[in-house]
């Protein structure tokens, strides 16, 4: 018998798309492309298990065998279910509400509006116990305490007023253990929206009840303008005077070169080029005050920095092994919080934060090489692990946890706390983004009405028409060629997911601002610390003023096929987004001298032509 020919990449891609359509329940029928896409989003099934209750939706189901060492679904995300009526209502609004740009003043967010003290937006605490209790009795007591916490939280907040937050008690137990083990807590937030991810209740619990110090790590500063970084740093200092604050980036000077590029460029292929590890070291030196010998950590940072500066050389990954410990059920055994700080002369750093703030990337950067897999999918880290950075410094990685707040759920989705692939209704979040960023002009979208009427008008004519969130998604589907598998209609659901992923990855950058930023903008733009932030981002002051250039100067052809520039950047959400290219140095690109890329305006107008 003749052997079957192996499937080509196009055939595999087509099969994958058909499987997705079947999973979503797409029938491919409908009077128009818009109606067909409406049915697609509405019939998408939840990723749930048989034991799921009617109120909680379990997300990120992972395959596993009963003979495995542990259940990977034990710590998956648990969010409160939304009613079908609410989903349909938001979908209707997305189709009918005309988008209007909001004033810049509304981008200013006060942390006390997100976490009002009178609403009881704390987090579940581990109940008291004694050694006479059995482990089973302790677990039952924890479950009862957690139910009481939820009852009190819902009694003080009307239905629908709370944001998405974690309902999985197993994940909260991981946080309890990490806080108990840690001497210093690294609270990592995304600089684009730090107040969303800094619960004051946890800060006061760590510094008050546990008597430990917190270092706030403002991560991903390469995605934010330097004046805004300084403004956020000063705002957090004014709200929490004793808080240590450090700016950090795992990608200094490595922006997206195009809007549709899947991964950020790496000028060198290592993790130890990150900006900020030395500042974390200095903060820990100030906190420990000589009680822990941190010289080995300092020497490691210096060695990594020297190795990165040498051409075609990187730290020898075999020269210095990293001791790693996995903690599963053994970490949940009865153990009291250690009252002794820096036990055995070892500093334990606990890394905690919301999903998608870059905790794993921070750990990889501190270690100097990849020890933790990185993904844009919330809930990627399943249980906490410890890594010995040196003989006297230990890092502890905790799964991402979403605390209850009063923030808009659409903004939460844009912040990356909810898996985009699991969204039942992504259109309202797209509308939220379009009202706060100039998406239409940047993407050069043509209004669907113009396409249906076969009129050939300039993009300015499209912008003058009334746009809805649904129109934006349909225009993007038409531009990118997203079609349903059977009827070949515009795949609006996939287009909406694509736009949300571009926003989460920082290609469509939405940055919130601290209160009063608009009034004090000139002060922040001329702040004396500005050169320091620019240097941390891996840029120079001259580059700041030369970011907006034409494609001819960029040395990149706007006629390059989109398949080569994109490679379907929205197709592999569950992959390790920042892990490729770590084994080999990046080839030098033939760019003209003086070539620069504007880090903050990564969606230049002429890029999407």
Describe what you observe in this structure.
Strand 3, helix 7 (200-209) and strand 4 (213-219) form a beta-alpha-beta unit. The strands form 2 sheets. The chain has a 7-stranded mixed sheet with strand order 5-4-3-7-9-8-6, sandwiched between helices. A two-stranded antiparallel sheet has the order 1-2. Among the domains are: 115-254 and 269-311 and 318-397, P-loop containing nucleotide triphosphate hydrolases (Rossmann fold, 3-Layer(aba) Sandwich); 409-451 and 465-509, Orthogonal Bundle (Conserved Hypothetical Protein Ylqf, Chain: A, domain 2). Helix 13 (427-434) crosses helix 18 and helix 17 crosses helix 18. The longest helix has 22 residues, at 135-156. The radius of gyration is 25 Å and the shape is globular. It contains 23 helices and 9 strands. It has 609 residues and is of the alpha/beta class. It starts with 8 loop residues before the first helix and ends in a 43-residue tail after the last helix. One of its GO terms (molecular function) is GTP binding. Residues 66-91, 581-591 have a biased composition (Basic and acidic residues). Residues 172-404 form the CP-type G domain. This is Guanine nucleotide-binding protein-like 1. Keywords: GTP-binding, Nucleotide-binding, Phosphoprotein.
* Percent range of helical residues: 25-40%
Query: Shape, please?
Result: globular
For the largest beta sheet, what order do the strands appear in spatially? 5-4-3-7-9-8-6
Return the average pLDDT rounded to an integer: 75
List keywords for this structure.
single chain, 609 residues, alpha/beta, Rossmann fold, Conserved Hypothetical Protein Ylqf, Chain: A, domain 2, seven-stranded mixed β-sheet, globular, disordered C terminus, GTP binding, G_CP_dom
């Amino acid at each position: 018998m003749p052997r079957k020919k192996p499937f080509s990449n196009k055939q595999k891609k087509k099969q994958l798309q058909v499987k997705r359509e079947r999973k979503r329940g797409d029938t491919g029928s409908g009077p128009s492309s818009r109606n067909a896409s409406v049915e697609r989003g509405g019939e998408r099934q939840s990723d749930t298990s048989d034991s799921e209750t009617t109120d909680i939706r379990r997300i990120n189901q992972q395959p596993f065998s009963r003979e495995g060492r542990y259940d990977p679904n034990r710590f998956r995300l648990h969010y409160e279910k939304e009613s079908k009526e609410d989903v349909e209502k938001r979908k209707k609004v997305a189709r009918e509400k005309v988008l209007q740009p909001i004033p810049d003043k509304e981008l200013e967010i006060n942390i006390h509006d997100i976490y009002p003290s009178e609403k009881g937006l704390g987090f579940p605490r581990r109940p008291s116990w004694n050694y006479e209790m059995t482990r089973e009795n302790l677990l039952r007591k924890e479950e009862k305490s957690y139910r009481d916490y939820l009852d009190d939280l819902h009694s003080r907040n009307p239905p629908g007023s709370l944001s998405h937050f974690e309902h999985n008690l197993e994940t909260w137990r991981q946080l309890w253990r990490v806080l108990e083990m840690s001497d210093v807590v690294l609270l990592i937030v995304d600089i684009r929206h730090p107040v969303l991810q800094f619960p004051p209740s946890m800060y006061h619990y760590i510094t008050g009840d546990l008597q430990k110090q917190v270092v706030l790590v403002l991560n991903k500063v390469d995605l934010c303008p330097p004046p805004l970084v300084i403004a956020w740093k000063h705002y957090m200092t004014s709200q929490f005077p004793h808080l240590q604050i450090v700016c950090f980036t795992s990608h200094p000077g490595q922006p997206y070169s195009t809007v549709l590029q899947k991964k950020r460029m790496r000028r060198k292929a290592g993790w130890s080029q990150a900006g900020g590890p030395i500042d974390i070291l200095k903060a820990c030196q100030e906190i420990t005050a000589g009680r822990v010998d941190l010289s080995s950590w300092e020497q490691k940072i210096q060695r990594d920095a020297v190795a990165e500066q040498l051409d075609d050389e990187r730290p020898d990954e075999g020269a210095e092994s990293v001791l790693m410990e996995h903690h599963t059920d053994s970490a949940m055994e009865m153990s009291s919080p250690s009252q002794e700080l820096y036990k055995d002369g070892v500093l334990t750093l606990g890394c905690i934060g919301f999903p998608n703030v870059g905790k794993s990337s921070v750990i990889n950067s501190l270690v100097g090489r990849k020890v933790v897999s990185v993904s844009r999918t919330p809930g990627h880290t399943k249980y906490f692990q410890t890594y010995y950075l040196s003989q006297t410094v230990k890092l502890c990685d905790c799964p991402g946890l979403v605390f209850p707040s009063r923030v808009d759920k659409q903004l939460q989705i844009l912040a990356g706390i909810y898996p985009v692939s699991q969204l039942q209704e992504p259109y309202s979040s797209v509308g939220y983004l379009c009202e706060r960023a100039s998406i239409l002009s940047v993407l050069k979208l043509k209004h669907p009405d113009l396409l249906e009427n076969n009129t050939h008008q300039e993009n300015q004519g499209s912008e003058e028409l009334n746009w809805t969130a649904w129109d934006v998604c349909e225009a993007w589907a038409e531009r990118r060629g997203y079609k349903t598998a059977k009827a070949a209609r515009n795949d609006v659901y996939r287009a909406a997911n694509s736009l949300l992923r571009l926003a989460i990855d920082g290609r469509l950058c939405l940055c919130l601002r601290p209160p009063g930023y608009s009034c004090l903008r000139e002060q922040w733009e001329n702040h004396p610390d500005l050169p320091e932030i620019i240097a941390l981002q891996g840029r120079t002051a001259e580059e700041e003023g030369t970011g907006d250039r034409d494609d001819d100067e960029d040395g990149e052809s706007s006629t390059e096929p989109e398949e080569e520039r994109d490679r379907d950047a929205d197709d592999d959400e569950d992959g390790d987004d920042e892990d490729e290219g770590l084994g080999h140095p990046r080839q030098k690109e033939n760019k003209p001298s003086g070539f620069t890329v504007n880090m903050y305006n990564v969606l230049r107008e002429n890029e999407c032509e």
